[in-house]
Amino acid sequence: MLSKIENGQTASAIATLSKISETLEVSLSWLLDEREEQDLVLLTRDNRRARIGDENMGYSYELLANRSQLSRFEPTIVHVTPKNLNLREESYTHSQDEFIYILEGSIYLFYDGKKYFMEKGDSACFQGSKPHLFIPVDDKEAQVLTFFMDNI
C-alpha cells in the first residue's frame, strides 16, 4: 500500500495517512505537502495546491497550511463526493481529535455507531479514535472545514 501511495497509483484515506504520520512522528501535512516547514504559514488561494485524493474514494481534500511546527493542528477542506459517486462505506479512526465545520452542502456524520445530519453552518468536535465517516446526503458535493488536532 505504501508503495502504491508513493508512486501515485492509489489515493490514501486521511485516516491512513494520519496513522502513517503518527508512526513516523511527523505532522499530516508533512506527508502531503512538498514545501519546507515555516514559522509563518501564509497561503493565498492561488498558491494552494489543488485537491488531493480521489473522488472515487468518496472525498478529496485541500491543505490550508503547509508544514508548521508552531501548531498542533492540521487545517483541511474535505470535499465529500456527491452521493451518486460515493463508494466509501467503512468508517475511519486516527489518533488526532477532529473539529469540523460544514462550509457548503450537507453530510451525514456517522460517529461511534450513530448518524447525525449536518448542514452548512453546523460544527462538531470529536475523538478521531472512534469510528467516523462523512457520507453525502444528496448529489451535491459538500465541503467540510476540518482541523485535525494532535493530542498533547
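That was protein one. Protein two is written in the same sequence-then-structure order:
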Amino acid sequence: MTQGHSPQDDQAAALANAAPVELPPSVKSSKKYRCKDSSIVSVDFLSDDLSATVTPAGGSPTPLKAAAAGGPFVAEGFAVSGAGTSINITLPGKGAQACKA
C-alpha cells in the first residue's frame, strides 16, 4: 500500500447500488382496553398505520395487518377495528365485542 491511498473497498459498488433500507414500523400508540366481558387486552398500533399487535391478558402477542390505513386489523381468528379510546375486537373462540381504554 502506498502512502496517501486507502485500501479499495470491495463492496463499494454493491453498497452504492443497494436498495434503501426500510426500518420496521415503530409503536405509534399502546393502549389497554377493558372489554364488555371484563377481559383486558393490550393493543400496540404501529407507525405504518397498517400494523397492530394484540395481546390478550395471559396470552401471546399476535401481529395483525390492515389492507389499507384506517381499515380493520386482521389475522387468523383476530380482528380489531378502531384505534382510539374504543375499539371492536374479535378474539379466537370469542365473538366480537366492544372495548374501552
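The mean pLDDT is 91. Keep this in mind for the problem set.
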